[in-house]
Amino acid sequence: MKDPNNRLEALTICLEGTESANYKVGRDSYRTATSEIYSKTLFESSDRFSMSEGTLEIEIPPDTMCSFEGFNNKIIWGLRFQGKIRRWPDLDTTFPIVVLPKAVV
């Protein structure tokens, strides 16, 4: 018998990197432009057993920028969780992570 409290039917976990840039338009107006710099699906399943617990190894590509926050620009990394939940609003949440620069040896 299925557990009625276990409504998660599908889960996807993605690693995402986004660049954000603020720029001035006119004298007093500011805008923000964002673009995706990286996206990779790390986990995807509709098997309830595999979604209940586990571990996941993340590899940051060596040719991408680390986390950064300047006055007008940002590089933001995050783990995005998307899930389909029966009889409930679906899950779509991103948890920010800090990606440090690679150590120079």
Sum this structure up briefly.
The protein is mainly β and 105 residues long. It has one helix at 48-52; strands at 8-25, 29-45, 68-69, 73-85, 91-97.
Describe the protein's topology.
Layout: E1 8-25, E2 29-45, H1 48-52, E3 68-69, E4 73-85, E5 91-97
Overview features:
105 residues, mainly beta, Immunoglobulin-like, five-stranded antiparallel sheet, 5 strands, 5% helix, 54% strand
Molecular structure report:
The chain is mainly β and about 100 residues long. It has one domain: Immunoglobulin-like, CATH 2.60.40. The protein has 1 helix and 5 strands. The chain has one helix at about 50, and strands at about 10-25, 30-45, 70, 75-85, 90-95. Strands 1, 2, 3, 4 and 5 form a 5-stranded antiparallel beta sheet that branches. It is flat.
CATH architectural grouping? Sandwich
CATH class descriptor: Mainly Beta
CATH topology: Immunoglobulin-like
Basic shape: flat
